[in-house]
What we know:
The protein is an alpha+beta fold.
Amino acid sequence: xxxxxxxxxxxxxxxxxxxxxxxxxxxxxxxxxxxxxxxxxxxxxxxxxxxxxxxxxxxxxxxxxxxxxxxxxxxxxxxxxxxxxxxxxxxxxxxxxxxxxxxxxxxxxxxxxxxxxxxxxxxxxxxxxxxxxxxxxxxxxxxxxxxxxxxxxxxxxxxxxxxxxxxxxxxxxxxxxxxxxxxxxxxxxxxxxxxxxxxxxxxxxxxxxxxxxxxxxxxxxxxxxxxxxxxxxxxxxxxxxxxxxxxxxxxx
Length: 252
């Protein structure tokens, strides 16, 4: 982070790497991030890019993120606030998938920032994959995973298994993040518990007191079968409906 003309901004600069193969990989990640951010300029739920050059990208700075929100809110957090943040980042994800044609691939609470107005924004696209389109069907082609991903709660099963990936890996990750938003904690108490749950294809326990409409949304998002997970657009529509329902309920 640096201060530029009285405003804090984030400056990411590639460091020189002696090993040529690693340096090329880092350059490739930098270019993907710049291409993705450039395609998403002006999107209100994407962290804005302020400028870039061959090895540097400058973006907005926001000190707050979903991780601090998850653990910082008091018990009994407002459902309205949870749904509002969930909708913000779902809209960002929809823009990423539909406008940029990209998969984030590294979605986790730290990557979801909150600006000074309280609006959620999707951030950090250096792991993004730009999807290719099938010329016959017009649909996006699955991406081949370079290698099986490390087992963490936000990673979809197909990502951990090293199978072909689609934008639905982001949907799975966001579903787990929504669970954390409403629960105020991580999906599983420790790595060992998560690995056991992953092997048994289990999901975190749902508190029966939580709003059924919201829990159904994120339960659909973390479905084992990627094809049965909703799209980002569908998640946005369902959250908008829920937000309207909550608004009506607050004004009898």
